[in-house]
Structure formats: structure tokens, C-alpha cells
Design brief:
eight-stranded parallel sheet; three-stranded antiparallel sheet; about 350 residues
């Protein structure tokens, strides 16, 4: 028998987290704990409105699973079978699978990465640092306050209306810094994006290295048109959730941002990262706004990715678990995190 418990965490943020489709000052994440024979594992769920997820929905789905035999799900095949019969939100699925995985790995006396059958993570993992959408006049102060220059790669959230002015401000504050520009599906079509990129190319000191999901996931024809014309690598985010037609994705994108919350579990996330590389695409490992529990979980599979965007803990004020810390733009496990491995 497996005992399951769910805890809600209200997470105040260090600043307004604004992307092209919404803005927030707090997040509500859920933590699941699975216990077998006195050994426990925890997993985090970070609900995402883009996929119709909310804390209330995840709570209701968890209670439904409890009523339909979750306590008898003692192995991953058991849990997989239950979730096939009663599908849940991807974020909840990840929390369930990761909590059980962490419990089973601890019972086996193995690090999580080893139990999962993936290469060991590096002791230090460089992460990008994200600038949310803000007024251009706030950029220099934000970069100075958060010492953003210590990160080798800066990720900049943009929208169609103010994206160019925001990038001008970033380029003025940190000229020639490698930037990952993330549109979160803000542009409606290929032509409007190409006009934006033409204007951006003329901005002094602006070094756009990667461009992430500028158009809606449904715009497959536009992405195929953009692929040979965009002039820098295009990364899929919302276009790849828990599964993908990689033959088609490879016609639209040059890389994929895999998030375990979006994939719905370690197993699906690992497969997506491996398929990304197998199709000659750049594998990137990303995150939602998460505590160090979620980021620690992502680090277990980080050796499968070439680019890491795992700065969700830096958005959270008073992060509760302290499993991971950041030093000079790199992530390291704290002692309590190392014990979980």
C-alpha cells in the first residue's frame, strides 16, 4: 500500500511574473507525498493556465484518484495503468509519478537519476535567467538588482506590442549578451514575426541567440514557412507537450524546450529529450515557476539536455524546500537535496 498526501503551497513571487498572455504576483503549487514502508518521496505540481490547469482542478482530480484505487498504485506500471483509465492534468501526473519515483528510488538505495536509467547530472548546471515583460525603463534597474549579468544566457519574455522596445533596453543594459527571446505564442503569423525580426536585427548590441515559440502552436504552416527564413534557431515549447510527431516538429523547429510539468512525468520527459536529440534537434530542459523540489527533479535528467532554463526558484520569494541553490549562474544541490539522491 502507498499512502498519499497533498499539500498546497502559496508562493509569493519576488516580482511581477509577466509573459505575453498573463501576469501574476503569486503562484499556488501542490506537493504530493508517496510513502511506502516508512520511506517517502515528494513531487511538485505547478499548474499552468495555458493547459487549462488550476490548483482546484488538480485537487479534485487527486481526490478522484484516491477514490479509485490510488493507494494500490505501488509501482510505476500500477500508476500508469490508473492514469490511463483516469487521465489527469499533466502537472498532477508529474507530481504523482515523481513522488512515487523518488520513494521507490530511496527504497532501492539508488540516486533518482540512476533509478531512472539516465546519465548522472553534473555537479553544477548552468541555467538561463529570465526577464519577465516589463517597461523598458525598468530593465536596467532589474538587471542590476538581480545581478543578471552573472548568467551566460538571458531569457527575455516579449509580446508583440512592446517586444522591440524591451529588447532595445536589454541590449543597452547588457550589450552583446546572448539572449533567448521567448514570445509565448504572441505573434499571430509568420509575416508579422519576420517584420519584427528585421527591425530587431538593426538594434545595436542585440544578440538574439535563440527564439522560443513566437507563434501559436496551431500555426504549423507558418512555422514550416519560417524554418528556413527565420535566421536563428527556433525552439518549440507549447508545440510539444507530452508527445509529438517529431518528423513534423523537425520541419518547424530547430530545438525543443522540454518541461517535466508539461510532459506529465519523468518517463515522458526523458523520451521527449531523447527523441529531440535523435532527430537532430537541440534538447533544452525548462521549467514553470517552481520550488526547488521541482527544479531538483529536473536536475535528475539534466544530462539529457544541452540548454537549461531552470531558474523557476529564483522567481519564488521565501522558497520553502532549499534543495537547490544558485551560484554564479549555476545550480547546485544543497546537502538536503543530495540526501534525496
Amino acid at each position: 500500500m502507498t499512502t498519499w498526501t497533498l499539500t498546497t503551497h502559496e508562493l509569493p513571487l519576488n516580482y511581477v511574473w509577466k509573459i505575453s498572455r498573463n501576469a501574476s504576483t503569486t503562484k499556488t503549487n501542490l506537493v504530493l507525498q508517496a510513502t511506502q514502508a516508512g520511506t517517502s518521496g515528494q513531487g511538485e505540481a505547478a499548474p499552468n493556465v495555458r493547459y487549462g490547469e488550476s490548483p482546484a482542478l488538480l485537487q479534485a482530480q487527486f481526490e478522484d484518484l484516491l477514490a479509485h484505487g490510488l493507494a494500490q498504485a505501488d509501482t510505476l506500471p500500477d500508476l500508469t495503468a490508473l492514469l490511463a483509465a483516469r487521465p489527469v492534468a499533466h502537472a498532477l501526473r508529474f507530481a504523482l509519478e515523481s513522488a512515487l519515483t523518488h520513494c521507490l528510488a530511496a527504497r532501492a538505495g539508488q540516486p533518482v537519476w540512476q533509478w531512472l536509467g539516465v546519465p548522472a547530472p553534473g555537479r553544477r548546471v548552468a541555467t538561463a535567467f529570465t526577464l519577465p515583460i516589463m517597461a523598458p525603463g525598468e530593465v536596467a534597474g532589474f538587471i542590476a538588482e538581480h545581478r543578471a549579468e552573472r548568467f551566460r544566457l538571458l531569457k527575455v519574455k516579449v509580446d508583440q506590442a512592446g517586444g522591440l522596445d524591451l529588447l532595445r533596453a536589454v541590449a543597452a543594459a547588457v550589450p552583446n549578451r546572448a539572449l533567448l527571446v521567448d514570445g509565448n505564442e504572441a505573434w499571430p503569423d509568420a509575416d508579422s514575426l519576420l517584420r519584427f525580426l528585421e527591425q530587431a536585427a538593426a538594434v545595436p548590441g542585440l544578440r538574439m541567440q535563440l527564439l522560443e515559440q513566437p507563434l501559436p502552436a496551431a500555426c504549423a504552416d507558418d512555422y514550416r514557412y519560417l524554418y528556413p527564413r527565420v535566421g536563428l534557431p527556433l525552439l518549440a515549447d507549447e508545440s510539444v507537450t507530452d508527445e509529438a510527431d517529431f518528423e513534423e516538429i523537425a520541419r518547424q523547429f530547430h530545438g525543443v524546450n522540454v518541461k517535466l510539468m508539461k510532459a506529465g512525468g519523468y518517463q515522458r520527459g526523458i523520451e521527449l529529450l531523447r527523441q529531440t536529440r535523435a532527430h537532430g534537434l537541440l534538447p533544452m530542459l525548462g521549467c514553470m515557476v517552481e520550488t526547488s523540489l521541482g527544479i531538483w527533479s529536473a536536475l535528475q535528467v539534466s544530462a539529457l539536455a544541452d540548454v537549461h532554463d531552470l531558474d523557476g526558484i529564483l522567481v519564488v520569494r521565501d522558497e520553502p524546500f532549499h534543495l537547490v541553490r544558485e551560484e554564479n549562474g549555476e545550480l547546485l544541490e544543497n546537502e538536503n537535496g543530495s540526501r534525496l539522491r
